[in-house]
Amino acid sequence: AAAVMRALGNHPQGLSLAAIAQVVDLPRSTVQRIINALEEELLVEALGPGGGFRLGPALGQLINQAQTDIISLVRPHLIALSEQLQESTCLSSLAGDKTYVLDRIVAERELRVVFPIGINAPATATAGGKLLLAELSEEAVRALLPDPLPVFTPLTLTREALFEQLVEIKACGLAVDRGEYIEGLCSFAVLLDTYLGRYTIAIVAPSTRMVSRSEQFQQALLACKHNIERAIGCTPAKS
Questions:
Q1: What dihedral angle (degrees, nearest 10) is formed by the CA atoms of 17, 61, 231, 177?
Q2: Which tens digits make up the pLDDT trace of 1-38?
């Protein structure tokens, strides 16, 4: 049943019984029984005289009841990531030219990074912010950012250097801030592209630990991203 509903979710225009059977690799008679059961619960509906089926209205009601908000859904993953690496982690979104910290987990260790929920950090000088800027068009980013960019540390990027880096970030889906906002502080971030919107999860740690553990941090972030998007549902790729 789950496979049938995923197939219909990937084809919002609807599918015939034969097409569904082909996608899920089940006999047509089996698919017919599953469709009948789902249709009874309004989880699937017929398209009409032309034939075929699509997802039904009851699915939206179930989603509304189950999915509270992005913070509640991601928090267990932030906690697990923080405990795995013994570093602070956070969930952020874009607010103008700032990154807005929606939630954060502070590492339980002597030397750790502590920052408040709700902090607005410059998107141009933080890993999460650069990731979210990279999702916008170049024209939108140029209109959004001041010229010249504010300088926070000797490592803060210039406006043109930032635009060059945004192209690379867009290609790989991972960003790094190497002391560009606060000296001695670094962050790694990865993009969450879900039906609830675009967010970033980041690891924030002292620069001394980031240098030696960068590969480990990247792998942990990518695994966390996969787990979250699998649980929430990622935005379908655009053709």
A1: 120
A2: 989 988 888 887 888 999 999 999 999 999 999 999 99
